[in-house]
Specification:
Helix content is 49%, strand content 15%. By secondary structure, the protein is of the alpha/beta class. 32% of the residues are buried. Bound molecules: adenosine monophosphate.
Length: 218
């Protein structure tokens, strides 16, 4: 099973990805997490990506395509994988198709998360993330039990540098101009499943499961 989660920053892709990988038994390939790890470890990819990420811009396609090509060839991806945050441009989507075709594979479905802009800004401005396990919280809507400490793994929880208001604006703009066309690309191929991503995590989780089980691509 090869799935991709598509949607603007703050639409809940990462949160739902965590549920999905547990129920489907496939790894989550979050390109954002991979890049943040690379920055932390001082890897070359991280050095090349950091400036783009700090500005809320997209990291160049060639770098992202190479990253995903390498990651999907690892042994834990043999039974499938869940893409979270990739592809983000039509060039990336086309490269992904070529990559999968060359390996005799095809995308199963792309889930498109629908949330309006005002809600995205509210979610991102209060978002808190665990630096160890990636669990997501919110200052008001979903605080940690102990301030600054992850409920799940005890790691330290704080704001992502690119969740600052001025960077959020530019990430949403980037989504509208560069990433939104990817949705039409997958819709044309009949692989797009739309999910209403407003509501509680549990409600969205049920809708995601229903979309995958029903396979109502349109
Ligand atoms: P995310 O955690 O998915 O919000 O990603 C954080 C940042 O990483 C984005 O704002 C981009 O700068 C970069 N990034 C992640 N995935 C991609 C991608 N597929 N293409 C280009 N840039 C990406």
């Amino acid at each position: 099973m090869i799935l991709a989660l598509f949607g603007p920053p703050g639409s809940g892709k990462g949160t739902q990805a965590k549920y999905l990988i547990r129920s489907l038994g496939i790894p989550q390939l979050s390109t954002g997490d991979m890049l943040r790890e690379a920055i932390k470890s001082g890897a070359d990819v991280g050095k090349r990506a950091k400036d783009f990420m700090d500005r809320g811009a997209l990291v160049p396609d060639d770098l992202m395509i190479a990253l995903i090509g390498e990651r999907t060839s690892q042994s834990d991806c043999q039974k499938g994988f869940l893409l979270d945050g990739f592809p983000r441009t039509v060039q990336q989507a086309e490269a992904l198709d070529r990559l999968l075709t060359s390996r005799g594979l095809a995308m199963t479905a792309v889930l498109s998360f629908k949330v309006d802009r005002a809600e995205l800004v509210a979610r991102l401005s209060g978002r808190l993330v665990c630096s160890r396990c990636g669990a997501s919280y919110h200052e008001r809507a979903k605080p940690t039990k102990v301030e600054g400490v992850c409920d799940l793994c005890g790691g330290s929880v704080g704001k992502r540098p690119d969740d600052r208001p001025e960077v959020v604006e530019s990430r949403l703009e980037t989504f509208m101009t560069s990433t939104q066309p990817v949705e039409a690309y997958f819709r044309q191929q009949g692989r797009l499943l739309e999910v209403d991503a407003l509501g509680s995590e549990e409600e969205v989780k049920q809708r995601v499961a229903a979309a995958i089980n029903g396979g109502r691509a349109g």
